[in-house]
């Protein structure tokens, strides 16, 4: 992975580049970011840069012997520890090293995936992965060896929150007396679940979530989506590229058109049309229905913010902006809370398997009433 393959995050990239260029590489670093963030991707790009034989000012070269191996995750000095569990093919003594082929496939497909996807990938959906006690013995053995090729031996520990206490203690010992020319890159989601004695020995890099614009760019590049659809996905993904990838499969219709049509009919009390729409809503399927309602809530929120201060809405495609502008005259302090609550309720009922058609009709009647109050 190279820095140029990660959208945005210029500040983080500059910090990391500088630390290498000025010889201030800390032996233990913690990349802290939520699922679907760039925490792992940044750690990978950083490791690639450190071992690159022809470093450029802003990135690794991508073509030297080291980069080629790093990018395929086959460099002998690039090691990984991640939560695993016994599976059909590894029925006992589950250790990271036994899952390296799966891990490479998984990361090369997308470094933004989460633990659930990893468990699915190795074929154990219902078990909890862990970094076991035995893993720590492997780790100690591993770092006692000299680097084969690179300047540094690099160990990436993915989700150290899932370390067995004795594995965490073994890691702590390694961090207290760091082996020469060895770097530990911890890629975690929540610092609270780590030993404070571990975090205090790492240099922490906070990795923010992706912005909506960045998610739009990502899904457009990766899935070649139309701008409108990409925007709808970004509004639901909450800065997670993992969520965005899943939504790309789930969202099967144009939420924006459906939503504007819905609101228009509610506003003008066109109940026959609303009944027709409820049939359409029914056919969306439950995941889509829930996503649609979350999308609607998100758009409502934007309308409300727009009513307070137009500059709070930073980024909307022209069609949506036009709608938000018009709709903000109908949504006021009198009805905003009730409208949002109604959508929340509808989502709640769909989640609990209520009849989607009934939920839709019922919400439509409520919303029609609230809109008139504005
Ligand atoms: Zn290189």
From TrEMBL:
GO terms for biological process: DNA-templated DNA replication. It comes from the Bacteria. InterPro entries: DNA_Rep/Repair_Clamp_Loader, P-loop_NTPase. This is DNA polymerase III subunit delta. It comes from Pontibacter oryzae.
